[in-house]
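[job 4471] stage=fold_predict status=RUNNING
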Amino acid sequence: MNAKRPLIAVLTGAGISTDSGIPDYRGPNGLWQRDPSAQDLVTVGPYLADPDVRRRAWLLRRDAGSLTAEPNAGHRALVELERSGLPMRVLTQNVDGLQQRAGLTPRKVLELHGTAQEVQCVDCRTVGTMAGALERVAAGEPDPACRDCGGILRPRTVMFGEALDRTVLQQADTVARSCDLFVAVGTSLQVFPVAGLPLEAVRSGARLVIVNGEPTPLDEAAAEVVREPISTALPALVRRLVEQYG
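[job 4471] inference complete, writing structure tokens
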């Protein structure tokens, strides 16, 4: 990299949040490894078609603890990166909101897969809080419906089987094409179109660093691959970047 202050793009996946107690999907101890049928709970077709799938999905959300999870050292490291003054943007596949809760400026975070902090009716599009919906589940409603029209409630996330919001994806592509350094953290880099963002960055001249516990399909394209735990590896990487460019 040059001695200039680089624009840093950080793509975060589920792996950055596992130390906060939120399981990933595809990792060795991921949700789908333990229960392959759980994929239906986050896939739009089965979710909308099957009340039993929705009931299981609400129990999963209730037990996942994402609303009460606390940011970990990986999230806090990215806050330190922002505070250093280095230009940066976070592109996240996560829906847990932990990066913002850690203190990162919300406008610096592009949520590629939406947010699990809110729910929306599939019919009338009314928006409510996930906390409120889970309170109804705890009170005995196994599949809470929209209180305005009786429609199905779903999280405001991009579920499997759905396309990403075109505007959000275009914004992410612009960041990838304009950055000098692209850091992929805790993501399998297997789900497109998001998995294509690091390649767009490399084609545009950026340096790619991958921090992930398992091999990814893009490891050969990376200038550096780090296999250490994210909660230690990411703070160390941020310290190195701040010392070099801050």
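[job 4471] summary: The mean pLDDT is 92.
[job 4471] exit 0
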